[in-house]
Design a protein that fits this description.
By secondary structure, this protein is an alpha+beta fold. Helix content is 35%, strand content 20%. It is built from 17 helices and 18 strands. A seven-stranded antiparallel β-sheet has the order 3-2-1-7-6-5-4. The chain has a five-stranded antiparallel β-sheet with strand order 9-8-12-11-10. Strands 14-15-13-18 form a four-stranded antiparallel β-sheet, with helices on both faces. Strand 11 and strand 12 form a beta hairpin. Helix 14 packs antiparallel against helix 15. The N and C termini lie far apart (142 Å). 31% of the residues are buried. It comes from Streptomyces niveus (Streptomyces spheroides). GO terms for molecular function: diguanylate cyclase activity. Its EC number is 2.7.7.65.
Length: 616
Amino acid sequence: METESEPYVRLATLRQLHDVVGELNTARSLADTLQTVADGIVKGLGYELACVNLVQPDGDLVVAAFSGNAAAEALITGRVGARASWERRLSMGETWGELRYIPHTEGWILLEDDVPQWYTEGPDPRFEDEWHPQDRLYAPMYAPGGGRELLGVISVDRPRGGRRPGPWGREALQMYASQAAIAISNARLRANMQRALVRLEREQQALRASEESFRQAFEYAPSGMAIAEMGGDQHGRLLRTNDALCRLLGRSASAIRRYSFSDLVHPEDIGTLLRTSAEGGRAELRLARRDSTYVWVSLRNSVVADTTDGPRFLLTHVEDIEERKRNELQLAHRASHDSLTGLPNSAELRARLSARLCERPGAISVRESAVQAVDKAFGGYEGGGPNGAYDEGGYGGVVPYGQGPGYNGTSGAAYAPVPTSPGSGYEPYEPYEPYEPYERPYDPYADPTGERAFQGDGFDPSSGVAPLDHHVHTVAPGADPDDGSKGLAVLFCDLDGFKSINDRFGHNTGDAVLIEVARRLNTGVRDGDTVARLGGDEFVVLADGLGATDAADLAVRLRNAIIPPIRVDGRAVRVGASFGIGWASCGMTVEEVLKSADQRMYIEKRSRKTVHRRAG
């Protein structure tokens, strides 16, 4: 490149430039490309030293490649120069197109900055275009595409002719820097693609490993697992289940895939299932087995989301809680039922009775008024002796139970005497008319389970009516047995002669008697009625929808069911029973209702002084 007037020099340089540019595109990595750029300057453009400074992500420039001097290469390769120092250099000196030439007369001020550099001492130039060792020539490399994003800077030194490059040499260096920028950009793109491919392969391997781990965790989980579809026409359909869930439900995987959880859930639990949130929702409900039985399970939901389409699948963990539920039900049953007879205990009785009563504001001024009203209508009393003992003159003109016409010691039913064998030791018991099953009257507000429905409140005390009152008040029937009114009867039962059995034969025999009495009472009532053990030898029967006559007939039937002998350990024993009939009514408390029935039971017991029983 001595002079531009020699055409053969231009042609030779152009050939060399073509060769070294071709080599730029054969490099396989970014590091190889940078070294090829430096080597191409020394090999094809006629400079003894070449350095490639590459812009780092933080903006500073690092010496990425060096060619022409091994000592210089070892000294400055990898060293970093500040971006500000480089911008200062690229703004100094003479502008040769895109090149920047800084003569030694100006470059001496750059000797102390932080840009890595290599230079040698030498004599001053003897002629005008002679190259000085401290002259500097830089070729900036900009990203392709017409922008001015700086990729790096090529610095060259010591042209072989000893002279500053002429116009043709400058043009060749500028063209080479442009092609080097393209090669570096392509090498970076290839490196990024390779890193992306490596990262993608690692992610795919991790995904495959994760899927395998999930598959094994799903398939071999000790508790049930299911994947269901979310959205669309098939929302909720089970797509996949594990062996544990198949065993739990007694169904094959192919059979379960025809269902959703809503198809398998118990009808009473469908509301619980629908209220369960998809994201982190929990529910305890019953699922149907193949044999039409149900098993208690705990469902726990989580969503398997797709980053583009949103939630797609519902992952459900199904845990068998049948044993836990059974234990819970047993504990609840033990808390609310008598351990000996299995009947509802006193607390459960009071809870069931309390559920039927309300304050009924405005209907009756005070609770005592309600008690007195029921007492007056059904054999009430006006006064009593100490400890609740009522003398025979304390009935205030109201005929008490057991003293009406035809009454002979039972709960309000008339019957004729039946002779017994002499010396039997038992007082005669009278026959009774066969008890006809009584039907519960139709109640439009009744709950399908047999319990009366509660419908709210809304009594208007100013008018004494409750047009907005949805609660079905419990009211005692009228005093006239023929008026057809019905109510909630409370039959208080106390066993006669039970203490003598306990004292004579022991508590084991007494327990057996109580168990048999409970069984006979349960057999003698309807399915919706309640038979409870209040304690000791006292029982209470709640029977809704009865009139006065129905309640008296029920007491007769239950009393005569208790009377037959009970065989315990080869011995026959017998107990009697006294019944008092009370009536539950809104405005009364539970204790008032039970006390009312209890008092009537003692009235009956006192009225049957001539009836004597003993254990047989």
